[in-house]
Design a protein that fits this description.
This is NAD(P)/FAD-dependent oxidoreductase. Keywords: FAD, Flavoprotein, NAD. It comes from Streptomyces lycii. Its cofactor is FAD. Strands 1, 2, 3, 4, 5, 6 and 16 form a seven-stranded mixed β-sheet that branches. Strands 17-18-21-20-19 form a five-stranded antiparallel β-sheet, sandwiched between helices. The longest helix has 19 residues. About 30% of the residues lie in helices and about 25% in strands. It has 15 helices and 21 strands. With about 475 residues, the chain is an alpha/beta fold. The chain has three domains: about 180 residues, FAD/NAD(P)-binding domain, CATH 3.50.50; about 110 residues, FAD/NAD(P)-binding domain (3-Layer(bba) Sandwich), CATH 3.50.50.60; about 110 residues, FAD/NAD-linked reductase, C-terminal dimerisation domain (Enolase-like, domain 1), CATH 3.30.390.30. Helix 1 packs parallel to helix 9, helix 3 runs antiparallel to helix 4 and helix 3 packs across helix 7.
Length: about 475
């Protein structure tokens, strides 16, 4: 087998791999990008883009119905056919021509096929034509293979053709009844979307509430919104088995101690696993199927000589597309610096070579109705890490801008303050449209802006951003 040398070989051409390749090419390094599916990755075709395209009409309709005058103009439900057609346009109808052109435009080589590590600095690619190509890396191999849906080992599940996040975001027809197993972000968003498109949705949640990794009030308000829309939420329920006698038959879910539930389709939104099980990790001394532990420059710590990097979901630091792209920019800068013999500081907290947001300022939006948005730590996380922290809450509906957005606006905001330094450790919002409030919170948390200085960031009146004034007043007044 012939070997083709590059400075950098990237396995995975999703947004994360694309960003690493872009940064490395910008520094003048030669790059090969290996992809076995569609260039653009999970986010473009089966996650962020199609899911948000499904959810935006839900939000728009809710906004119209929430205001007297526009409410009376709404004469019917969502048009499912048009929503699905618009969703398909955002996935480019599952064709990657545009993404391929972009990779080529930056001067990277795209190699189609299944890429696996084949020892240090080597990647073997099984191509669609049956050939095996070997790519070697002078400076770095980057794993950007993402994650996949993790299904439980339940009796009958392998024959039941369950939906995962992929099927839930790409389905071409609205099921009459949809069961959603799980209570996390995917479960909440897809329950919201498919209920609005006409499904009778039942959520089966093993825990006691929704979105349990966020502040407790978030799950409560989101559950109220889903229930008001018609979603049935059953908590404290465990699925023990699945039956589907034929491909076109209904699905029967066996529930521990409480009987059975039937649906036309079932979505299992029960976690993610790294796509590293068929990656050749064993050839470099790592365990197949494992999350890859990295330092803050995204270099894998358990591989000698520092040539292997992992960005995005594969390293398990923060399973969010925007966080993976952030890591990719960090890794690309670090790879380029090391290739050019420039120093990469070990403690680069405020610089270009360390991904510090993954531990201190992770951002997330749940595009349900109402939305939930957070930056940084919850109160429980802050206390677990040993901070002397205080939570400050306010009713978002009491803000003039929110009252104008929706009649009877329901929402809540919280900031978590480090009492020793008087900076924000985290901020959480829940309510209609709060995702657009989030970046101000992100800047405050990531920049460690002193609470006293935030008083001088004057919010415009009457906007929802006045919630910041209410939070600061509550902190001052001991609320």
């Amino acid at each position: 087998m012939s070997e083709t040398p590059y400075d950098v070989v990237v396995i995975g051409a999703g947004p994360v791999g694309e960003n690493v390749a872009d940064r490395a090419r910008a520094a003048g390094l030669s790059v090969a990008v290996v992809e076995s599916e569609l260039v653009g990755g999970e986010c473009s075709y089966w996650a962020c883009m199609p899911s948000k395209a499904l959810l935006r009409p839900v939000s728009a309709l809710a906004a119209a119905r929430a205001v007297a005058g526009s409410r009376e103009a709404v004469t019917g439900p969502l048009d499912a056919e048009h929503v699905l057609h618009r969703r398909d346009s955002f996935t480019s109808h599952w064709k990657d021509d545009g993404q391929v052109e972009w990779v080529e435009s930056i001067g990277a080589d795209l190699v189609r096929g299944r890429g696996r590590l084949d020892g240090p600095r080597r990647v073997a690619v099984d191509t669609p034509g049956g050939e095996t190509l070997v790519l070697t890396a002078r400076h770095a191999v980057v794993v950007a293979t993402g994650s996949r849906a993790k299904l439980p080992g339940l009796p009958g599940l392998d024959r039941a053709r369950p939906w995962t996040s992929r099927e839930a975001t790409s389905a071409q027809a609205v099921p009459e009844r949809l069961a959603v197993v799980g209570g996390g972000v995917v479960a909440v968003e897809m329950a919201c979307a498919w209920q609005a498109l006409g499904s009778a949705v039942t959520m089966l949640v093993r825990g006691e509430g929704l979105l349990e990794r966020m502040e407790p009030f978030v799950g409560e308000l989101v559950a109220e919104g889903l229930a008001d829309a018609g979603v049935e939420i059953r908590t404290g329920v465990s699925v023990t088995g699945v039956r589907r006698p034929a491909p076109d038959s209904t699905v029967t879910l066996e529930l521990a101690g409480v009987g059975e539930s039937e649906a036309d389709e079932v979505l299992f939104a029960t976690g993610r696993a790294p796509r590293t099980d068929d990656l050749g990790l064993e050839t470099v001394g790592l365990t197949p199927g494992s999350w890859l532990t990295t330092d803050d420059s995204c270099r894998v710590t358990d591989v000698a000589d520092g040539w292997l990097y992992a960005c995005g979901d594969a390293n398990g630091r923060a399973l969010l597309t925007h966080q993976g792209k952030y890591q990719a920019r960090i890794a690309g800068a670090a790879i380029a610096a090391r290739a050019q013999g420039r120093p990469v500081p070990e403690d680069d907290r405020w610089g270009a070579y360390a991904a510090t947001a993954d531990t201190a300022a992770v951002t997330q939006v749940v595009f349900s109705e109402p939305e939930a948005a957070s930056a940084g730590l919850t109160l429980a996380e802050a206390e677990h890490r040993g901070y002397r922290a205080r939570a400050v809450d306010t009713d978002l509906g009491s803000v003039a801008g929110a009252a104008l957005v929706a009649d009877g606006y329901r929402g809540r905001a919280r900031m978590v303050v480090d009492l020793d330094r008087e900076v924000l450790l985290g901020v959480t919002f829940v309510g209609h449209g709060v995702g657009e409030l989030l970046h101000a919170a992100t800047i405050a948390v990531a920049g460690e802006v002193p609470v006293g200085r935030l008083w001088h960031a004057v919010p415009a009146y009457p906007t929802m951003s006045e919630v910041w004034l209410r939070l600061l007043e509550a902190y001052r007044d001991g609320g």
